[in-house]
Design goal:
Blueprint (H helix, E strand, L loop, with lengths): L5 H28 L20 H22 L15 H21 L7 H16 L6 H10 L2 H9 L5 H15 L5 H8 L4 H49 L5 H21 L16 H11 L17 H32 L5 H13 L9 H22 L7 H12 L7 H19 L18 H34 L7 H5 L4
Helix pairs in contact: 1-16, 2-9, 3-9, 4-6, 4-9, 7-8, 7-9, 9-17, 10-11, 10-17, 12-13, 12-14, 12-15, 12-16, 12-17, 13-14, 14-15, 16-17
Amino acid sequence: MPLNDDQNSDSESSRLSESTASSSDSEYSRQSFNSDSSSKPSSPASSPPKTITFDELMAAAKNLTDLTLAHEIAVNANFCIKHEDFPQNSFAGTVKQIVHKAFWDHLESELNEDPPEYEHAIKLFEEIKEILLSFLTPGANRIQNQICEVLDTDLIRQQAEHNAVDIHGLANYIINTMGKLCAPIRDNDIKQLKATDNIVELLRQIFHVLDLMKVDMANYTIQNLRPYLQRNLVDYERTKFQEILEETPSALDLTTEWIKESIEDELSSISDESSSPPGADSSAKPIISPTLVLNNGYLKLLQWDYHKTIPETLITDEVRLQELREKLNLLKIIACVCLITNNMVGAAIVDVPDFADQLKRISVPLLEDMNKKTFDLKEALNAIGVQVCSTVNSSLTERGLPTLTEEMQSNLIGQIAHIVEENNPVRSLIDKRIQFFLRSLLALPSFQKGMPSMPGGLSVIQTEMELVGSQYASIVNFNKQVYGPFYANILRKLLFPQAPMGKAETEGPTS
């Protein structure tokens, strides 16, 4: 495949962006920049500068936590709470083990006294009662009354004064109640509790299983809450972010800077690509597409340095965007390897079925850690080059054809190794084509389910690119739904600072 196709690809990209922007921005401008809606959830209001108190800061932090958690529950079907403990060999794990052992040893010594001392045990039963009651659903009055009656700490104290506490009977009642309330996955834990005779060890294990049941209950709640959040997430997130903005007016500073940089990039691109004809007004400001500005900003997130803070409106998807960036980096290298190999030895492998898949199978294991700081990309590319030469030679030998000469092998390995260079022409070409595909994807109407055509040179990674593109478009389209009104206010101020004030200015546009 000729490497000079990038010029054609770039011109196609510009035409696509311009045509899409011109068709969509008139509608965007009408809806977003001239709206007179006053609905609070969809109308972010600007706030004057003010001093932020500690309580306001904590309230904003809580809103951000709620927003992030709700977003994660709704968009991540695998999100769940996990029961985690400190590693045993860690300092925290050692301290916890020592403290817990001291507590349970003290409890055992109290129960072994004559007469037994029950005060600490009674406090444990009181805590167990509260945990069991927290598992009950509204309306479970009968079992609630039973738990309160059997684990009545005042009654247990009276029995203790007369040395008449049936501590094993209380423990058995607790275990049976846990068996009624637990998830099926805990049935085996309940059986093990019933087989434990030592009362101190039994109480310790009861608390362990109760901790697991708390996690089960939290995940059950998340599972039931997810459909509701998915139906109402746009309004919920927008309302929560508006509350954050009211508490901390600087909560859009990074987002504003992100959009401003995208505008500057677009202005620079326009000035590079066009020159004023003779007699034209050179002082006239170029017309910039708000949609194009936003889409270019979203594209920059796939090349973002995630050591820097991401724009505030994208914090909830930061991890997902970073994962997509890492996947694209891997796919870019694989596409480069395949393109170089095809250009150099394409005639020798043209009849080999699934040769591109063989190259992927060679490359992926050697590149899987490429996003780690300690990864040596140049060394990995050298190893890939050697294996590619070996694979090509094996294929040629099987078909009775002469193998690659030493010079051809050295050249192939060298060209693959040079992919490590940021300005490598093959790498730049593949990167432009990936950007063109993603830009085309963002230009599609949100209701359109299909994918744009795959640019040349990317067919080897088409399946993976379409999956990444689908995930990326989903993040972007949802983000636009939630934060579109906030972006509209920022874009209006940056692109149209001379615009007359109106209701849309003071109350905000609709999405």
